[in-house]
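assembly run, all chains below
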Amino acid sequence: SAVISQKPSRDICQRGTSLTIQCQVDSQVTMMFWYRQQPGQSLTLIATANQGSEATYESGFVIDKFPISRPNLTFSTLTVSNMSPEDSSIYLCSVCYRGEYNEQFFGPGTRLTVL
Amino acid sequence: AQSVAQPEDQVNVAEGNPLTVKCTYSVSGNPYLFWYVQYPNRGLQFLLKYITGDNLVKGSYGFEAEFNKSQTSFHLKKPSALVSDSALYFCAVRDGRGNNRLAFGKGNQVVVIP
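ok done. output:
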């Protein structure tokens, strides 16, 4: 399994500001994903982070709001832009190794509170 | 599009009793099914998966799950629950046609009563 770290682990931010979350993996992975877990809710996929190209966003999520970078096979960032209280969630990074049958491994998450 | 239903919000069970967490799914192709557990203030941990083969899958911490194609179900089970099993459990499915995107159920809070 992968060892995944996220920074920051939690933050409290003001409305209108932006926060960049980092995800670091201890080995090269094929795929990296970003999820959102709103309070009391399940996980919703935001986007697939593609190495060297633009991320692939799910319906309801756009690049202007959630810009994503993936400069190499072990690192990705997610920015939550122009935040509002509705963005208060846990944001999780997950990774998947090459292989059709492989499960995803999840980072510890970043707990974001927007005031 | 794939989807998962976990019909119960909370499952209460006495320590030592059997634990069952229900999951049904909907997917276009062959399903790849997963169970994850989330402890308080922690990320998700992988428990087990069904890809193909034997319908009964064994995973971590004594958990197992049974794939039932006719009922489109993948219920999680443990013969004897521990207090330390108290956590949030998520069922997830992905389409086996190469789509790596996971669809998660809403999660079930399991409370094991000493």
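Chain B touches chain A through 20 residues (CB under 8 Å).

The longest strand of chain B covers residues 87-95.

not gonna interpret more than that til we talk
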